[in-house]
Amino acid sequence: MYWLCIYLPALPLEVFEPSKQAVAIIENQQVLLCNDVAAKQGIEPGLTASTSLALSSTIVLINREPEKEQQLIKHLAEQIYQFSSQVVAYKNHNQEQSVLLEIGSSLRLFNGADSLLKKLHTMLYKNPLSETGFQHFFGLAQTIKAAELLARCSKGYSLAQEKTYHGAENKKKHTHPFVQHNHWHDVMQAPVQKLDCQEKIIRQCLDMGFNKIGEILALPTSTLTKRFNLNFINYLDKLQGKTQDPQIWFTPKEYFHREIFSIDGLRSHADLQQPIKKLLTMLCDYLLQRQLKCTDITWIFTRFSKNKNTLEINLSQPQSSYENLLELSKIHLDQLPMDSPVENIFLSSKNFIKKNSRHTDLFSSHEKCGEFSLLADKIKSKLGDMSLWQLKTKESHLPEKSNSMEYFGKQYLNKIKNNEMNIVNDNDYRPAWLLQTPVPLKEKNKCLLFNNNKLHLIKGPERIQCDWWSNRDSRDYFIAGLANKSDYLKKTSSINENPNEQTIINSYENVGCWESFYWIYYDRIKKTWYLQGEFS
Amino acid sequence: MSYAELHCISNFTFLRGASRPEELVNTACELGYQAIAITDECSLAGVVKAHVKAKQLEKEGRHIKLIIGSEFKLPDSSTLIALATNKSRYQELSAFITLCRKRSIKGEYQLLLNDLNIHLEHCLLIYVPGANKNPLTSPNTSQDVQLLLSHHENLWVGYQRLYQHDDESRYQKAYQLATTMNKPMVACGNVHMHCHKRKPLQDTLTAIKKNTALSLLGNQLFSNSENYLRPLDKLKKIYPPALLNETLNIADRCHFSLEELRYEYPHELVPPNLKADQYLLQLVTQGANKRWNNQVPEKIQQQIKRELTLIKELNYEYFFLTVHDIVCFARQENILCQGRGSAANSVVCYCLFITEVDPSRIAVLFERFISKERNEPPDIDVDFEHERREEVIQYIYKKYSRERAALAATVISYRSRSAIRDVGKALGLNTQITEKLSRSLGWWDKPDELQQQFYKCGLDADINHPNLTHAYQSGKTHDNHASIATLFMQLVHEIMGFPRHLSQHVGGFIISNGPLSRLVPIENASMPERTVIQWDKDDIEALGLLKVDILALGMLSAIQKMLALANNYPLKNTPNNSSTPPPITLASIPDGDRATYDMLCNADSIGVFQVESRAQIAMLPRLKPRVFYDLVIQIALVRPGPIQGEMVHPFLRRREKREPVSYENEAIRTVLERTLGVPIFQEQVIKLAMVAAGFSGGEADQLRRAMASWGKNGTLWQFREKLLDGMLSRNYSKDFAERIFEQMKGFGSYGFPESHAASFALLVYVSAWLKCHYPAAFYAALINSQPMGFYSPSQLIQDAQRHHIDILPIDVQLSDWDCSLHFSSTHKPLSQPALRLGLRLVKGLSMATGKRIEAARAMHSFRHLADVIERAQLNQSDRLALIRADATASLSGHRHQSHWQNLAADAEPIMYERTNANNNKTNQDNNRSKASLAANTHDTRQDLNDNITLPEPSEIQDIQADYRHTGLTLRRHPMALLREHPPFSRCKRCIDLNLLQHKRFVVIAGIVTGRQQPGTASGVIFLTLEDETGNINVIVWKNRQEQYREELLKSKLLLIKGVVERNASVIHIIAGQLVDCSNALQGLLLPSRDFH
């Protein structure tokens, strides 16, 4: 067996888009890696964040993001899977990531090691996942641990591209086919610091004056077992291939992908019905067997002319029901032009979630939520994704910020599910729906007019002065009424005409006299009156 | 119509109140309020400042009544305001706050409902019902609270109208409640700021408190700025008249003033048959006879009489007796102590053995200590050995109980850096930006520069307000950067000086005759078993209370240890070797020792108290101290005050007789004669203001206070004009007047009064004398007292080696915990003993372990590593620490082999269970006998080598490990190793610089041990480079700093090309080119020490 390790020393930096600015990745307030621009400004690994800031006034410091690295490694492993069926995503004690693959059994398939390595190199160098490709080092050995170690020592076959990252290992070019190389000699000569073990053990080795791995391996095993823990002894054994080194093999992500061909071509919507039902049945069987629900499905219809129509259906809530999926698909299909016959129908689904086996409460709103989401999906299928809106509430004193609209999304459904739909507003005196833009009110003879009718201040003011850091606002809000009885106007004629100094004694007792209620405010900065909402 | 605001939060309700107590009182007075109550939340921390302001206004003929009160949050989210009507109610309130505070951790309080009717029975209470928004609060809680309060005799229901949507319903609720409870209603404002413009600051404080950005706070902020002191006509429109009148009724019932507080010192110190003054006289007389050997000079007797008369007149006898008692305890326990500060101006203090400076040595100004006109309590600061100060503190707690003794508080306030950080966070700025801004404060007074900084930082990326067009105050249109810069600067300026939290004073104790909590609230400090009062030293001083400062001084610990070691020298300095000489004590050290002064004149002062800094060392050969008073001048001269005031060079020129000493007139001569016409001491500057600028006694006193608080509030500026005008009108030159003012600024926090300098000079002389005559004891004691002083043990050891003292390595077989002295059997009286480094230098080793090793070894010496491990019960980290420090080399050969053996030790069963460090003596005795048994039976058992012999570490590896694990090496200096190779072989060593002429070009190299950028040095950076022969001082001018920024910041080893600057025997190198040679160290990573 020959294990090839692809070590990606600059991965923490490569997960981010390349930048023309000085950029450094920091971990525990210390620089871990930096780009060329930063290096030219004197930044180097090991510096503290504050020293880096002192050295460069423009440097961008970014915290390391291990989750993004993990994600990227998974994507890479998927691509590497084409070269070997035994692939391992490996993370060492220092959280450095690499991908290992067994190439012994793939050498013939790829016409030898040189060709395979070049293909891998090209794949990494010109990779769609990174604009500038991935810096990488190869390590080849007969054990996983030795390959990983050699890759980190950059003693292996390296075709590192021209770009470099400071802090990554210095590259060393070996262009010869290194399968025949004596890798074990390299392992023995490797520095002790490269051992993949706890920092404490490396420290102990250095304390005893061991500098090369070979110096440790040369000692009698009995003296080592007396001094080091079992994990380290096991590691040394695995390094030398004395014991098995079981790994969790990488398995590519599963997805549903089926297609149906028609020799004669499908010429009408009615012709499509049967194959669509068949494909959906297959999908639902697939979901049932794996206890999954899908969150999207994609239909691709290929014509004889090779023209394609793609219909993507994003579901508001994961589904596994045949009926629901069929109904949604039919709505979409109604919009499919049938001007030329369809040769091939393709159905795929890539994103799944586990079917929830949790027991729900007797009176839970899940049922309601499911119905609602189906309805929402139907509306969106019919009218488009931008057709459905929802009310958004936010904690803010400013009314237009506390109540606003946004496109309907999954969050809304989650709120329904969790019974969180109560609008957070303890203020009983605000209309739930506001005008999109406040409407200026006219003033005539010290009277406020709305549609040429006189407004009467009933309650207020409520003063709102906030958001001074963005737009300074200072408003006095009132509830105003439009009277429907002429005698009431007489009754209220004594109201002070200066609305800013209204007392609050007026109350609900007069509600019956009013035709409608409005929410208006006086902008104390612009000295203007506005209408912002109407009470139902 | 008038009004009394009864609910007012100051900024002493930390991160809530947005105005200072003084601002609230002043504004209330300006608005024509009849009274104002300062009601901080469960706190009286701000009331003294409000009281002082109210008194000041009264002096100016503007009257406003100050009511003392406090606010408490109740479990039903309502608020209770308690007001003190008279002294006993104040005591009740203070005790209640103490009760609530002491139940909780620092900064918090816990109020139990049942306390209200028991512990707050007589205070006036205002109950302000809450909005009851908290879903966890059940309506029942509200009913419980109301039911409980309805029994209170002096209760009002408070109503506050703040232009909110529920004003009306809250009024109705309050009205119904008042009717049900049959209690009157009263208006109150829930004031958080003195003017509405403080709203942004109040919001910012809320954001800081909630630790989030302003834009995310939503409804947690006040909806408007109505929580301010509103004009009377506005109040008249929004409150019913009855509610406003009720505020005045309540205010009329409150007539307590903080002036009524009478403070009593503990009385138990005076014997029953004597009065305090009689007892004090008795003690002073005894002390004087002892000090002057029963021959007290007439002048001194007169002075004692004068002082005692004044002390009696001002009733300060108990204060002196209390301090005397504490000092007596320290002496009894053999804890070295010495009073300093203005107390050294008092002969009484000298006779009570509180201070040590003989009044005949300096110009005693008793008025500087106590003055009838000034009528403020004397300030006695006593330094104790820093390692034993806790014993003194515990003595005070034990003697007077925690009810009667507590530490004063220190108000931790916003300074520029913390203000930038917190305001930046509240505004949602990126931490990188605020970090950058706080590092460089050059933009402080330059808004344009700040805007540039904002542009550079691409600020708009971090503020999610695309329509940011207004700066809140101006209302004008700005671009993003400008408006944020304006807001940011304004808020930072506003928040500066705002209190952040209370901390404990370094050692200011307040001790009373009765329970202290009835005088001032007491709360828990963060340290366990520590309590602090809610007032700081300014408050205590303002109310005329007395405090004793129990301070810690590292040098006293060191001197005590030096004396102990020196007294163990075999029969040195004895006229004949027949009798045992008396032990050396502070008192027995001879005056005017020529050798000591010679040593100081040669700038040989590393480790000597106060004159060891680089600046002081550079000054010594120029000032050439020959008598005690020269030392007093030396330590007061090299301070920011005189340096900023450019007084140093004129003084040196006059002293060297290169410039004539002249005085503008006779009055100036009397003030400045003893310092050759140059003002050096704080007292002289004040006196000058009086004689040269016509300041009255009162004004001079205000000036002194302003100087002390300069930098904190900037009040000194208001004296500038008066001083300049006064001096110019008296025909002094403008230049002289300006210099005097510059001096005052410098004296701010850094100036020394003469008496203080004299107290310190005494320790300078003592430590210098010990260094001169007992150098081995001197260095050993200094290292044994670390951390203290300017120099690391490595630097001290190198200095010791330069003084030809043999230094012996740390060895588990021979070293004690402390460094010790070893006399050879052929020790000659004038030779110095060898210094054996102690186990305390082993990084990571605890004292308990060190002592266990000492004890195990005392029984019999160790045979091998396993023996040490077993008998001293060493755990893995102890072992590693010892091996890494090479303390076990004598047992195993070298570090590598020790590590090899140590790892195998764990595989063998260690015979005894490890005991923790807190074992009592009995346990230790048992273990000793067990360990002894083990050593005998397993003597040959432990062959941990397994027949493997590892190669020895290289010299460089050993040096590296030495530095890393002990901070020093006795092997060759790293520079000595590098010296063999270019470019270092071509560099001059420190010792070679003495032979070079002024202005000569030179190349040097050394390890960077210090980077210093003193505020007084106008941007110059001082570097200290260490090589195998000494320390080289390098000056890097500003123009070079920018060019070699990277080298200055990062280098551990620097090669510098520069020019020699010589002045007498003082040599500096002016840096021209800096080269970072850190790589040459090959991993010899030495931590550099930065002094700021």
Short description:
Chain A has helices at residues 11-14, 36-40, 49-55, 66-80, 113-125, 144-153, 183-189, 199-207, 213-217, 221-227, 230-240, 269-290, 322-334, 366-383, 399-402, 410-417, 486-491; strands at residues 3-7, 23-27, 30-34, 60-63, 87-91, 97-102, 137-141, 256-266, 292-303, 308-319, 342-349, 352-354, 389-393, 403-407, 434-440, 442-444, 447-450, 453-466, 473-483, 514-523, 528-534. Chain A is α+β, with helices and mostly antiparallel strands and 536 residues long.
The biggest beta sheet of chain B is recorded as: 7 strands, mixed
Which stretches of chain A of 5+ consecutive residues score pLDDT under 50? 155-177, 487-511
* CA-atom Rg of chain B in angstroms: 34 Å
Rounded to the nearest angstrom, the radius of gyration of chain A is 35 Å
Largest sheet of chain A: 7 strands, antiparallel
| Overall residue-averaged pLDDT value of chain B | 84
Percent helix of chain A, as a range, is 25-40%
Q: Regions of chain B with pLDDT < 50 over 5+ consecutive residues?
A: 459-479, 909-925, 927-941, 1085-1092
Range of strand content of chain A: 25-35%
Broad structural category of chain B? alpha/beta
| Helix-and-strand structural type of chain A | alpha+beta
Describe the structure.
The complex is a heterodimer of chains A (536) and B (1092). Chain A has 536 residues and is of the alpha+beta class. About 9% of the residues of chain A have low confidence. In chain B, the strands form four sheets. In chain B, strands 1-2-3-4-5-6-7 form a seven-stranded mixed sheet. In chain B, strands 8-9-14-11-10-13-12 form a seven-stranded mixed sheet. The longest helix of chain B has 20 residues. At the A-B interface, helix 3, helix 10, strand 18 and strand 19 of A face helix 6, helix 7, helix 17, helix 39 and helix 44 of B.
